[in-house]
Amino acid sequence: QVQLVESGGGLVQAGGSLRLSCAASGRSFTRSVPAWFRQTPGKGREFVAAIRSVSNKYYSDFAKGRFTISRDNANNTVYLQMNGLKPEDTAVYYCTTRGNWHVWYYDPTVYDFWGQGTQVTVSS
Hints:
By secondary structure, this protein is mostly beta strands. It contains no helices and 11 strands. It has strands at residues 2-7, 10-13, 18-26, 33-39, 46-53, 56-59, 67-72, 77-82, 91-98, 113-114, 118-123. Strands 2, 4, 5, 6, 9, 10 and 11 form a 7-stranded mixed β-sheet that branches. A 4-stranded antiparallel β-sheet has the order 1-3-8-7, with no helix packed on it. It starts with a strand and ends with a strand.
C-alpha cells in the first residue's frame, strides 16, 4: 500500500502560481510512476502531468509551458509547480501513482493509489 497526501492548494488570482506537494508513505516510492490529475464537478478526472524520470515527463496540452512536475525520491515527494494560473484551472488536484510505467499514463484507471485531493481556486 501507498498513502498519498497532497498539500499546497488554495485561492490565487489569475496569473499567479501555486506549488502542490504530494507526500508518499508506505511502499517504496522510488521506482513508482507518479502523476497529477484534476477534477471539476460533474466531470471525470483529467490528466495533468506524469513523471517517469528526470528526463521523461509528460504533460497535457493545457499544462505544457505553465506546469512543471518534479519528484524528490529522497523525501518521497512529488511536486506540481503551476504558473500562469487561469480561472479554468480551478479544480481539485489529485496525486496518484502506480508501480511501473504504463503507456496509457493519461488514463486514471491505470493508477493504483490516490490522494484525497487538494482544492485549487483561481479567481479572475
